[in-house]
Protein 1
Amino acid sequence: MNETEDKSIEDGRRPQRLKILGVDVDPVDASLALRRVSDYLKSPGCKQVVTINPEYVMLAGTSSRLMRLLNRAELNVPDGIGIVWASRRLGLPLAGRVTGADLLPQICGLCESDGHSIYLLGGAEGVARQAAANLQASFPRLEIAGTSSRDPDADTNHETIAEINSSGAAILAVAYGCPKQDFWIDRNRDLLTGVRVALGVGGAFDFIAGRVPRAPRLLRQAGLEWLYRLWLEPSRYRRMAALPRFGFQVLRSRQR
């Protein structure tokens, strides 16, 4: 974070967003993202946080609905290493990645220190519950308002919303995957009467619950977590096919 960004925060303005192939990305590191979340908890209304990676950007290029959603979300953090790479190619380098798997525990630490509660929604049966137990072990004073593996279908929506609202949760973490989780939040944010921050966390529950191992730290620092995930789950190759197309379009946009 540079001096200009610090000044913007002090006088209440949000630093200018970086636009990557039409998608807005906030120039935040993990510390600043957490400060934003802390500020959102003090104001009314439900704010949406999205973890942006190249897959999101490529999907948004084919879906005006997703593009509108991403560009009106209050906070878009740079999750994928491809986003950091693109920012450097475009001459506005980001400090680094802010992954959902890292941000969620940090938010839980914030909740523990400030007395806020969190609700975990999504994932396979039992995963949210195990993730909650592991988070509780790491943050003993953390209040888990509730967990649910209920799916995002409209048939269960009323029940899900009622349960979250009655729980008193200030933060909602949703793990339905990209972009289902973000469409769900966008569709229901006005119905979440007590929630102040709703964020899509992708596979974070699986990591925290111990169902899926994260890449070793050295690989994460080198930006090769995607390669480790591909080794563990070869079926992800279809999703990874977006990466070369993303890189080509970024380079072409830079030339223009």
Protein 2
Amino acid sequence: MQFQGATWQLSQTHFMRNFLHATPKNLHDELYGKVRSILDAPEVETARPLMNQVVSDYSEKAPKAIQVLENGFDDITAVLSLPERYRKRLRTTNGMERLNEEIRRRDRVIRIYPNRDSVIRLIGALLMEIDEKWQPGHKYLDMKDYFVWQHVTKI
């Protein structure tokens, strides 16, 4: 499935794991702080010069890590184009990971399904149950501000 016009946001947590995996051990603490400042920048226009500085300072010391940073920069900073109040919740995939874990937890109990339809029924029922819990006023994100911002910025 494709969502036309949707922005791709790479989980910053997963990116940082991949980045540190490619970083020499003796530079972990140093580069973690520098990349964290890129991720915490208020907008992409601030993050890009920070990234360029890290690239110029560490391209010879940590070439693999710098390659990971350059390749993932646009995907990890996509969230910076959104209003600030949404960034904290959308910079990671925690919500989706939690939902997937709940599906796996229920799946482990059954293990063998008689057919495809039974899988769809079980997962569908679980998703409907979770949706019903969220319906009565529980909001992960209040989208009113987003729609105002979207209208003003003409996305």
Protein 3
Amino acid sequence: MTPDGRIEGDTQTAYILALAADVLEPAQRKAAARRLVEPIAERDHHLSTGFVGTRDILHVLSAIGRHDVAYRLLHNDTFPSWGFTLRHGATTIWERWDGWTPDKGFQDPSMNSFSHYAFEAVYQWMVENIGGVWNETPGYRRIRIAPVLDPWLEWARLRYHGPTGLIVSAWRRTPEGGARFEVEVPASVAATILLPAAAGAEGVRESGRPLEQAEGVRLTRAEAGSVTVETGSGRYVFDVPRVVVPPKIER
């Protein structure tokens, strides 16, 4: 890495791998994060990664706090993007972004699989961010649910059949700028739930009751932008009057 924060090669993948592997000093990490986002913006918020960099790009963007860029990449439908392949009939992951394009047709058939899951799928990132479900201990005995609201979506619902049972994390935004969060925690499982509440615990309710009065819910932290509660197994419905949503980078 040079003094001005550039990694040799200066590609999106170079910065992705350095950040994902956590091999940088704090000051270098800040510079690498900036240099990752800049070339993405220079390409009108499009990827220039192969399968090695694509695996980690959304995870890295979320880790450096750029959920806005991650969501823009996820929702792109112009070349090159996951949405471009979907728009042209893909039902599986392509080996190459340009496996087929309207202007050039098919790529070289010697290396052009159209069922090439490899490292290019993004389902895990969607589970951990749109749904917000994370495993905290072996066997899913403790989970964390911390959804990051997608500025392009009005609602989302995740149903994950884990080793301890069904985990549900769902949210729906309201016209007033709030959201309702529905969470189901399997039997014998403890959960830490982080709600993106703009005003902290003010006005946040569970099943219509203030958090202090909600059965099976323990408020552990509240600050502007986030509320953290601990629960056991069961179904919980949280209403947050104002939520934090990453800014939408328009296409």
Protein 4
Amino acid sequence: MNGRDEPRLHLEPFLHLVDVTHDRALIAWGGFWFEPTGDRTRWRIVDDERLPEVAGGRRGCIGAEAEPYGAAQVEVLDMAGAVVARATTAQRCWAWVEGLEPDTEYRYRVLIDGEEWGAGERWDWTPDDAGGYSLKPAGRSYDLRLRTAPDPEARVGLTFAAIGDYGVGICADSESSRRQRRVAEALEHLVTACGVRLVLSLGDNVYLGEEGRIGNESGGEDDDWYSSFYQPYRYVISRVPVFPAVGNHDTTDSEGSDDRAQMEDNFHTAQRFRDDDARASVSPGLFYRFRYGADVEFVCIDTSLATPDEHVHRFFEDAKHLRWLEETFARQAPRWRIPFSHHPAYCAGPEHGNDPEILQVLDPLFAAGGVRLVLSGHEHNFQLTRAHGRTYVVSGAGGKLREQLPHDFDAAHTEAWAMQAHVLLVELDADTARLTPVSGLRADGSPHLMTALTPSNDVLRPPFIVTP
């Protein structure tokens, strides 16, 4: 950043493949503004409050409610380069593209006023020559491919990933930042090399003022999410959809501000779930289900504390949401029905224990609904419990890590645990789920598979197998 013609601002464009079904895709775009620091040696992100003065009166950067950047045309192309579907908008920064074929690979692009959005070399938050990290050209560009889900009647397997409690941010030179970076790199490898088709977020998508953040924000503005979500998973979220669960740090449960509205904006929950009462129960709360082919159904459960005017302690105890959950789990079960949420039913600690409300209200529904695998976060480690014919996994160390020993293995029926940051790889076929926690990448770029311990300190090597 030297010379007379130093830029005053840099707009870094982002692309987000928000959702993909068997016949359509929800594609979004946006960007973040950066300005030089006082000594003009590095860049810093422009806070949302200053956007009106530096970005022509804008109020937001990215997400469902962001103002348009111009007349947009979203094109989906077959692998030979022919445009097969198109959507246009001048009012939004997102669009559903309809009329796609099931289980088919495509490329896509977004044109804003005729110019391709996010083309060419991208600027990422990367290590700099002076130590630490800064924004600079990274020698990378987008690979904008998507693959539609299979036909709803197709009986096929699925490889997906789950990651929880990741929202510490990657912009500071801190251990929590490095953890999230390592896990994010592993997740990207699983998407590009191992066939991951979707990602489940197990909650705590952004934390308040944690090390590794830009500034001391809570998660209630677009710029708060650059460090925690958009930059670390940049090349993941442009390729596969992320399905979110609500964590206690995404609400007022553990923070002074409620980030739920910002989370719903960034994940486009209204565009994906709100208009389908059969598929979701929302506002307030976030409960939804989605299928992948004929054999797999995911059920997102909001386990956060209800607001005081709801007259219940947890959102899943609300009459409307509970009725939807009862109807969901009473439906004929596919081969795999997988509930996921932030708070775990069983937990050996060290900070959290078993959740009596989940065990009393939700676990009987799991039993009735043929559930064999339950995923959650919240405790910042890895735990695997087997109880009542079901396997319960805690995967809450995508960035956060609790470095104390669990203390209540017996009550939690714990079979395996580990004190390492990780992403959970799940490979499903008709009868078996293979669970492999991955803690990072080896020097040769291959995944570093995370071992675990039994309560008696015997070493267990992945994968962990779930069968009927």
